[in-house]
């Protein structure tokens, strides 16, 4: 029996009707196939990449930029929502500062710079800064894989990062800002209008130099998106499946799927963000809206949806290894007279 057949027997041989657990079966199958070998336990790690974004100068957010550092530090201190989600589900997590505009680092210090530049005026980051953020993401995943982690999830923290994500998605696809730009966390209708203008004009400014996905990320993206994209690419190289969270991580995934052609084989969606560009970003990596298990109208970020998904996946893998098997059942055969009466 080849490996794929063993996976099918493990899932379909459990004492339940075939496909009765729906998307949980679909995604646990994908994880098992991504591993290429049987593991009876999910050993996860959650990475949160935090950075500031220079484009907040354009009035595209309702919160002050200082929130990035304060909330990232709350995560480190175990007092943020994502910290509580991870603790409640016994999932280890690491906060990585890839560009918060603060002299102190919140979490692991991998600052590429003190925030990106305002992409309405210049490129968001230099080639050297891009490389620093990219290496932070890829090295985090490589280190986790070396330590035996077999499922990785990604989250982010950065005031203004729905603007940078929307700009990257618009730059990648040309889809009009009206369809991919949302209000973000606590945004007003006035802020939304401004964001759409900024995304359109910012991408138009840099469009002549868009020769690759990396060019788009460097010109209008954020350090958090770059690091997450790099982490996802590294997951594919290390054959470690990963869980996508909300809009920002979905855009990073769209980029990773274009950069590394096997990334799609390792990606598992979690929830459908309220941001309008979410469905488009997932579709760029061949994930349909109908494949997304959690519909909770969430818009927090940080990886909260991803952690809920890991909890479901941990439950699912325990179940397929510990439920009775259909082969254990000895069913009585009906008498011919009983069949005739049916």
Structure in a nutshell:
The chain has 342 residues and is of the alpha/beta class. It has helices spanning 3-12, 22-35, 67-76, 81-88, 127-146, 161-173, 177-180, 189-206, 213-220, 223-238, 247-259, 278-283, 304-322, 336-341, and strands spanning 44-51, 93-99, 108-109, 151-157, 242-243, 267-268.
Describe the structure in your own words.
By secondary structure, the protein is an alpha/beta fold. It has helices spanning 3-12, 22-35, 67-76, 81-88, 127-146, 161-173, 177-180, 189-206, 213-220, 223-238, 247-259, 278-283, 304-322, 336-341; strands at 44-51, 93-99, 108-109, 151-157, 242-243, 267-268. A six-stranded parallel β-sheet has the order 3-2-1-4-5-6, with helices on both faces. Helix 1 runs antiparallel to helix 2, helix 6 (161-173) runs antiparallel to helix 9 and helix 6 (161-173) runs parallel beside helix 11 (247-259). The protein is elongated and about 85 Å long. The protein starts with a helix and ends with a helix. The model has no long low-confidence stretch (mean pLDDT 95).
